[in-house]
User: Fold ADP-dependent glucokinase from Methanolobus vulcani.
Amino acid sequence: MNILCAYNANIDSIYHIGGSELSNIITEFEVEDSAFSDTLQKKLAYPPGSISSKSDFLAGLLTCMREGSGAEWMIKDSAVFEWIKKTFIDGSFMRMGGNMGIMSNVLSELGASRVVPNVASLSKLQLSFFSNKAIYLPFEGKLYKSSELQKILPVNTNKPELIHFVFDFSKGDVVSFSGHEFTIPRENRFIATYDPLNFELHMDEEFRKYSLAHIVEIDGAIISGYHMLQENENDSSHNNSSNISPDYKEKLDSSLKQLQSWKNIRKDLYIHVEFGHFSSDDIALYAFSKLSTVVDRIGMNEDELAMLAGLNGMDPKPILEMDSVGIAGAAISLCKDSGLCRMLVHTRELVLSVSCVNNDDPEIIIEAMNFGASCAAAFACSGKLADRNTLLEIASKIPESEFGKKETAKMAQNIEDKWQCSTVCGIHNSYQVAIVPTRICDEPVSTVGLGDTISAAIFLRELELSS
Assistant:
């Protein structure tokens, strides 16, 4: 299978921050600047929500540690980014970040023939985190394997490294600063993100040219990153002029034109979009409504589905409780209202698909969902990607979710026209529904990227079985 991937690949830099280390950093700033303590206290009382100074960064980190909460703030000042990088990068663990970056590696490791990702900021460091099996990148009119390009790519100091700094902290650790002290109530993380290009849905020009020239050779495209769009501080939501177009709309519409240009050449190109967690309700609603008219399927987890359902007047509670009938009902309702034909909902306990095309082969999606659930469970238990045979061997020893099996049986009782399938499928509210339980690893090594793993694996297996 030949697959295009866009938009967001970045570098995750994971750093475990201790209470005493953070306390020492704050003390150093207080020695340098007598007003620093007052500035920090004001920002703790009224968190800025983004990072334009060192005190902004510390306020975000302290707030999360004090509350045991998680948050992600955007770094808006390059000088602060350089300070964070200089201070913490050496002690961090770096890996591939971004939904698309993770999904492209999954596709490569699981046996896709050629995976061509869009890389907003191509660098030797970013390349080092791509799979060496089937990742190919266009550069100066030619296509290179990631490992080959890493050797010949010139160093470009004008291209920024797109780094998401993930600061993990532990429950019970004590933080002391400016005469204050608190104990962290639970483990969590604060993410400081410097990613000016992926926030713009930037498409690399080399990728753009390659995709149009070779779209007839492509079997499918898997897209993510729309959740990174931000509201422009000067857009129409902040003033009375209705003629000013919000910046995120222009960026999303530009992306949709690109996807449509592929469809215009290759009408049967299968495009799956992984939705993501949006920071703005308005952007989420706009993105879902616009994407639904262009792409073939949208995938999401129960939190993302509940958010969309709530914004559309539905009760999100059954979805968050992973009630299969509630999930199916919300997915079908959203599809009908938006014109979307297919939706894939992946949760910890079950995976559910709805489709407006009654002649879609349900056994293909069932096998693909089982394959994806197995790959994700094996990845959770092992903490690393491997070839599909290895992953499936690991997964065969991981039991199916008991909760998921009960919800699968519950869905069977509510389907109006139940078909004979290897699991549960049939027609429900005029849509074809299929559902499978996941496999649950009791002691996961990694939970980061499980949603991306299951979606990419399902997508690949569907392409294979449908070809």
Remarks:
- The chain is about 45% helix and 20% strand.
- Residues 235-245 have pLDDT under 50 and may be disordered.
- The domain at 197-466 is CATH 3.40.1190.20 (UDP-N-acetylmuramoyl-L-alanine:D-glutamate ligase).
- Residues 99 and 452 are 6 Å apart (CA to CA).
